[in-house]
Amino acid sequence: xxxxxxxxxxxxxxxxxxxxxxxxxxxxxxxxxxxxxxxxxxxxxxxxxxxxxxxxxxxxxxxxxxxxxxxxxxxxxxxxxxxxxxxxxxxxxxxxxxxxxxxxxxxxxxxxxxxxxxxxxxxxxxxxxxxxxxxxxxxxxxxxxxxxxxxxxxxxxxxxxxxxxxxxxxxxxxxxxxxxxxxxxxxxxxxxxxxxxxxxxxxxxxxxxxxxxxxxxxxxxxxxxxxxxxxxxxxxxxxxxxxxx
Length: 245
Fold this sequence. Notes:
Blueprint: H1 2-19, H2 26-32, H3 38-48, H4 51-78, H5 82-106, H6 111-121, H7 127-145, H8 149-181, H9 186-244
């Protein structure tokens, strides 16, 4: 319904514009407009789109990017070589026992090391207890890896919603102007239509940018989860071998 109303207004405005003898070709319109630097153009569109709505959309972008960058850096630092860590823990168990293996885990940051450290704390208990402690710690670390994703998802949804809200308000302003003037002309329609279109474009662009970061973060979490699962299995094999000896 919104798109139909916009199309109807644009079509009516084009008819009135044509009747006033305006240039009909895109080349004429392009030639009539001077070149504007990109920064100045963005600044102009920001102001024309309505400082209130555009500022809210920019805030969504800034906060969403901040959360995304924090997650990317955290997950990147947490990415360790799990096979090397398991080997170090296994060698430490053979040489120095439980305490030496715990020291190796404490010296290594990341969810994989935390899982192994939790299992080593219960090394004197049954294998079922050790495995349960590793699995429980893995669930805690997985939740920690996903921290902040709900907020990023929220801003992905809010940004276009703000843009659509600006669209509706812009259309209302255009209809109010038409009602007050009692006529449809490009000058009357242009103001409200510009707010409607610019806010929608801004919201969609912000949502697309944050969506790319969101999917990239999900891929890193998925890879880290695979490492955690593989490491926990290798760790339990090392614990079984240690207990046999």
